[in-house]
Amino acid sequence: MTPPRRGPAVEARAVMVSYGETPAVRGVDLVVAPGETVALLGPSGSGKTTLLYAIAGFLPLSGGEIVIEGSVVSSPTVSLPPERRPLAMVFQHYGLWPHMAAAETVAYPMHRAGVDKKEAARLASDLLEQMRIGHLAGRRPAELSGGEQQRVGLARALARRPAVYLLDEPTAHLDTVLKADLQSELAHRMRADGAAAIHATHDVEEALAVADRVALMRDGEVVQVDRPDDVYARPVDEWAAHLTGPASFIEGEVAAVGADGAGRYLVRPDWARLDGPLPARVSDVRFRGTHTDYRLETDLGSVLVREPGPARLDEGAGTSLAIERVWRM
Amino acid sequence: MTDTSTTSLGSEPATGGSAARGARRLARRWAPAAALSVAAGLLVGLPLAVLLRTALEEGLGPLLEATASAGPAIWATIWTSLGATALAVGVGALIALLTERTDAPGRRGLRLAMLVALIVPGYVAALGWLNAYGPGGLLDDLFGVAAPALVGPLGIVVVMGVEAAPIAYLIVVAGLHSRAEPDLERAARASGASAIDAIRSITMPLLRPVFAGAAAIAFVLSVTSFGVPAVLGIPAGFTTMTTRIYRDLAFSSDPASFVRAVGLAIVLAVGAAVIIALADWLLERRRADRSGVFAGPIGHMGQSAPGPQEEGAGRRRVRPRALAAGAVAWLVVGTIVIVPLLGLLSTALNRAPGLPPGPSSWTLDNFREVLDPRTLEALGNSVVLAAAAAAGVIALAALAVMARRGRGVGLTGSLLGLTFALPGSTLAVAVLLAYGASLRNTLLIILIAYLAKFWALGYRPVAAGLDAIPADAYRAARVSGAGAWTTMRTVVLPALRPMIVAGGLIVFMFGLHEVTMSSLLYGPGSATLAVVVLNLQQLGEVGLTAALALVLAGIVTLAALPLLGRTGVLERVGWRR
How would residue A255 be classed by pLDDT, with cut points 50, 70 and 90? Predict the structure, then answer.
C-alpha cells in the first residue's frame, strides 16, 4: 500500500488476447505496484485466467503490451518465454507433477535456477516446514489431500522467489475451513516476501479479504479498479454492485440519508437496520448462523437487511426500516 | 441393480398369476445374458475348444516338434516386430508431441492424415511403399532413387512400423491429455524450466507408462500382422508366423504342416494375450496416481484453459520454431502416408511400367481391366460380409447392453476381452476346424470369423456410451413410471444410438478390408476384395494391383467418412485391431 517508488511490478497496457477469432481479453489496463496484491474478481469466463496466462507468457498477445519490472515481456511481436519472467504461479488445479514427491516438486524451481542439489533440498524442506507440511515431504500428489496439495503448490511458487506471484483461483477447490486457512497463509507469505501478487478469484469475500486493490472483470474487460472498501461501497454500476456483495436497489426520494433528489440507489445489508421511519413488511427470513437476513418490502423497493443474532420476526410481519447510507447508481 | 421388489413397484398389485409373472420376469432378465453366452460360445468358445482339442489329439510331442520346425518364422516375427515397434512408437510420439505441443501450422491436417493412415490397411500401405520407394516406383521414375531392400525383412520392419504408428500416435495423444495436462508443463515453465526442460523433466517421465503401453500394442499388431509380411515377405521368401500359417493351410495337404499351423496359431494367441494383458496393466496402472481434480474426464483441463498450442491467438505471425516443427511433422507424415498413396496412384494410372509419370502416360486402363466380373463378385462378397458383420455386431452389442443392465456383467466383459486378444490367424484356424466340415468355402464361415473378431470392436464405443449414461438417468426413468424394459427402450438405447451406429460403421470399415482371416477361409466364389488384391500382387500384376488397392482404399475411406468427423470414435477403435 506504500506508493510505488520504483516502477510498477507489472503493467498491462491495452492488453488483448484472442482464441482464434474470439477475443478473450479486450484492452485491459492494469498497474500492480511492488508489494501490492491485486485481486482479479469476475465470474468464470470473464478472462481472469486468460489475463494471468498472458502475463505468465503462456498466451501470446494480439494487442497491447505487458511490462514486468520495467521491461516489455509481451507484445504482439515480443514474447519472453515464461521461464525467463520473474514470476511464479499457483494453479487452480494445483498443477502438481504426479511423478514427483513434495520435496522434489519444491526443489524443482531451485534446480532450474542452478542452486546446487543439497542446498535446494535443504531450502525445499525449510519451505515445507514453513507451510506446516514438512512431514509430507516424501509424498506424491495422489497421497495428499487438496489442502496439502495446494500448500505444496504454494511452496513451489515461493521457492522461485519471484517479483510477482500469479494466483489462479488457488482456493477454488478447497472447502470453507481450508480456504480460510490458506487465504491467511497466502496473505502472510506475500506480505513477508514483499513481492507483488495478482490473485484471480470468483469469490468476492476472498478478493476483499486478501487484496490491496480489486479489479472487476467482465467479458474480458476491467470495469473497475479500487480499494476493497471502495469496490464494495462505490460500485460503478449495478453489475459491479451485485458482483461485490449482497445488493438491494431502491428508487425514489431518500432525503433521510442526505441523498439529493430522486434516483436509483444501492443499499448494502449493513447500511440499513430494522426499526426506523420507513414502513415495511417482511417477505423472507433467513437465519445464517452469525446473523439473520430479512428481505423487507417498502414503497421504495425491496431491501435486504442483516442483523446479528437469530430471527426475531416472522415472514409476513409488519415492521419498519431505517436506511443509514446509500450509493447513487 | 433391479431386484424383484423394485421392479414390481408401480406395476399392478401382485395377484393370482404372480408366480407365472415372476418366472417371465426372471426369464426376461436372464434372456439377454443367455443369448449372449450362446453367441459367444458358438463364435469363440467352440472354435477355441476345437482348436485346443485338435492340438491335444495330436499329442504334445508332435505339436511342439511341428511348432519348433517353424522356429525361423517365429524368430523372424519377433525381431521384425521389435523393430517395427521401436519405429512405430518413435514416429507416433514425435508426431503427437508436434501436433499437441507446438504451434506447427496445419496441425488439423496432420491429425487427419494420421487417421487416414489408421484406415489404410497394412497391405495397401505395403503396396504403396513398393510403388513409391521400390525399384520402378514413383521416386525411381522421378529422381532415380529406389530402395530395393523394401521387399524383405527390412521393408517389413519399416512398413509394419508405419502401420502401427497411427495407433501409437493416438495412444500418446490420449496419454498427453490424460496424464500430462498442459498446466503441468506450465507449472514447470513458471518454475523456470525451458520448453525442452519441461518436456524432458515433466512430460517424458509422466508418459513413460504410455510409451510402454503403446509399444506393447504396436508389438501385438506387428506380431499378428499378415498383410505386410504377405506383400513384402512372400516374394522374398521371408516367412513370419502369420504367413507360415497361411502357407501351411493354403498350399499344403501335408498333415505335418497342418499340425504346425495349429501349433503356431496357439503360440500366436498366447503370445498376443500375454502382451495385451501387459499393455492393459501398463496403461491402466497409475490412473489413480493423478493429482486431485485431475482425476476428472480426459482433456478436462485442455478444454477449460486453452494453451498456446490450442488454436493459437488471432492472426499473428507464425514463429520460426513453429515452422520448423511443422516442417518436420509434414516431412514424416508425407513420407509415411502421402507419398505411398501417390505412388499407388502413379502406378495405377501408368500405361506401362517404366514410362515416366506424366499426363502423356496416364490411362484408366488398369482400373477398367481390373474391374472384371470376378473382381466385382469379390467386391460384392466384401460388401455383403462387411454389412452382415456390422448388422450382427450391432445386434450383439444391443444384446450385451441389455445383459449388462440385467445380470452377468462381468461375464460379458471378460468374454469380449478374450476376443480382443485373439489374432485373426488363430481365429481363422479355429473357425476352420470347428465349422470347416460343413461350411468350408462359403461366405458364412468367413462371416462367423468376422463376427467373432469384430464383436469387441463394435461393442467398444457402445460400452463407452453406456458408461457415460449416469446411473441417475435410469433411476429418473424408473421413478417417472417406466419399467426396466421401457427404460431400456426409451432412455438407454436412444442415448446409445450414435454409438451403435459408429460401432456398426467401424465394423463395416474393417470388414471391407479384412485380409488375414478371409485369405485363410476363402474358397472358389467366396474370395474377398482384399484376397484378390493379394493374389494379383503374387501374380506380378503391378498396375492392376495398384488400381484395385486404390479402389479398395477409396471404398474404405468412403465408409469411414462419417466417422472421421466424430472426434474420439476412431481413437477408441485404434486401441486394438
Answer: low
**In CATH, what number is assigned to the domain containing residue A281?**
2.40.50.140
Q: Do residue A71 and residue A217 come from a single domain?
A: yes
CATH number for A100: 3.40.50.300
CA B170-B155-B225 angle, to 5 degrees, is 55
Spans of all domains in chain B: 32-305+322-572
Asked whether residue A2 is domain-assigned, the answer is no
Q: Please check whether residues A133 and A159 belong to one and the same domain.
A: yes
Residue B163: CB partners within 8 Å, gap ≥ 6?
B84, B88, B122, B125, B221, B222, B225, B228
State pLDDT tens for residues A88-101: 999 888 888 888 89
Cβ-Cβ contacts under 8 Å between A and B: the total is 128
Chain B contact set for A159 (CB, 8 A)? 191
Q: Which of A87, A112, A141 sits opposite B197 (nearest CB)?
A: A112
How large a percentage of chain B has pLDDT more than 90? 8
CA–CA separation, B550 and B536 (whole Å): 13
| ipTM for the assembly | 0.75
In a domain, A4, yes or no: no
Identify the residue among B107, B191, B204, B301 best suited for mutation to test binding to A, counting A beta carbons within 10 A and taking the highest: B191
Residue A3, domain member (yes or no)? no
What is each CA distance from B23 to A14, B30, B33, B404, B557, in whole angstroms? Answer: 75, 11, 16, 20, 49
Q: Identify the three-state secondary structure at position B308.
A: coil
Do A19 and B316 make contact, defined as CB atoms within 8 angstroms? no
Q: In a mutagenesis test of the A interface, which of B181, B201, B291, B319 is the best target, namely the one with the most A β-carbons within 10 Å? A: B291
Count: domains in chain A: 2
B463 or A154: which carries more pLDDT confidence? A154
What own/partner pairs with CB < 8 Å and gap ≥ 24 does B57-61 have? Answer: B58/B259, B58/B262
Interchain contact, B190 vs A87, CB within 8 Å: yes
The DSSP letter of residue B313 is B
Q: Are residues A187 and A232 in the same domain?
A: yes
Domain boundary among A213, A239, A265: A239
Cβ contact (<8 Å) for B307 and A59? yes
Nearest-neighbour CA in chain A from B99: distance (Å): 17
H helices present in B313-442, as ranges: 320-333, 339-349, 365-370, 373-405, 409-421, 424-439
B111 Cα to chain A: minimum distance (Å): 19
* Residues of chain A found within 8 Å of residue B206, distances taken between Cβ atoms: 97-99
How far apart CA A250 and CA A263 sit, in angstroms, is: 8
Pairing of strands A221-226, A63-68: unpaired
Q: Is A137 left (phi over 0), alpha (psi -120 to 50) or beta?
A: alpha
Residues 39-58 of A with CB under 8 A from B: 49, 53, 56-58
Query: Which of B184, B301, B313 shows the shortest C-beta gap to A97?
Result: B184
Q: Is the pTM for the entire model greater than 0.90?
A: no
A199 and A267 belong to one structural domain: no
List the domain range (segments joined by +) for residue A28.
Answer: 10-239
CATH for B32-305+322-572 (3.90.350.10, 1.10.3720.10, 3.40.50.620, 1.20.1730.10) = 1.10.3720.10
The answer to whether residue B176 scores a pLDDT higher than 90 is: no
Tell me, yes or no, whether A228 and A270 share the same domain.
Answer: no
